[in-house]
Amino acid sequence: MSSMAIDVQVCTHDLHVAPVxxxxxEFSNLYQANLRISKENYLHVVVKELRGYRSxxxxxxxxxxxxxxxxxxxxxxxxxxxxxxxxxxxxSLNWRMGLILPSCGxxxxxxxxxNPTSDRLRLSQQIASAxxxxxxxxxxxxxxxxxxxxxxNGTPLLMDAxxxxxxxxxxxxxxxxxxxxxxxxxxxxxxREVGVEHEASxxxxxxxxxxDEENPPYTLGSDVYALGMTIFTILSGTLPFPHIRxxxxxxxxVLNGERPQRPVSPSVSDVIWEIVEISWHRRPDMRPTxxxxxxxxxxxxxxxxxxxxxx
Length: 311
Known about the structure:
- One of its GO terms (molecular function) is protein serine/threonine kinase activity.
- Residues 16-297 form the Protein kinase domain.
- By secondary structure, this protein is an alpha+beta fold.
- The chain folds into two domains: 12-102, 2-Layer Sandwich (Phosphorylase Kinase, domain 1), CATH 3.30.200.20; 106-191 and 215-307, Transferase(Phosphotransferase), domain 1 (Orthogonal Bundle).
- It has nine helices and eight strands.
- Strands 1, 2, 3, 4, 5 and 6 form a six-stranded antiparallel sheet that branches. Strands 7-8 form a two-stranded antiparallel ribbon.
- It starts with 14 loop residues before the first strand and ends in an 8-residue tail after the last helix.
């Protein structure tokens, strides 16, 4: 997507927001909107209203909330990558704040399920490239999974870049995080189960600071684990552990060292399956970097060595 010169703070008269949210997320409400980009032209966008603040609605809490969201929006707007979703700006909605984002279509899992001949290898490479870009900026995403990768004109866009700081300071507790279990690294829930101490983990992101025991130790390695699970989802067209009905049951499998089985159809090359499996290593420091994952997929994409997947 082409970059747009829109200020982080957007005037309300330049944006017409629907009065009722069209979707309710885990920690946000989504509103359809039209953003005026010139005297006569409007851009269809989505406003993501962030909610779930821990503190009572007092002046101090509102100031802290506003500061955090401004920081998140400024950081997100600073990213420039073809597979990182743009953030056009920030809008005040009553006392809450809303991020102004592109209007996209289905998520990446829905896309590959509806387009069985799509180039899944290329999609995986693009997503790995987006994660590598964030990591090069010392930012850990903390929530890489298909629902946070939306399609726009056939291109996957990783959203919620930099929102880890907001998650850690809101009511985004493990009760909400149960939907992440299929994609989350085991050390996030019990480092002792996998023999990994916090100090042995890769360097944490500068903007993701745990504030209490509910906040797991997100690292570059935990992002790569989630990237590997997301790539598995793209290659297979199914959820990790598809035989498990409830997401929270997946945690038991993960902590017991179990991982998804290699897809039979579509088939996956040995090189690709090896990098995917290594990304799930029990020890975070043994996992590849996102840049390495991107490189391997790029090489395989050039050779088109995934049978029945490359379009």
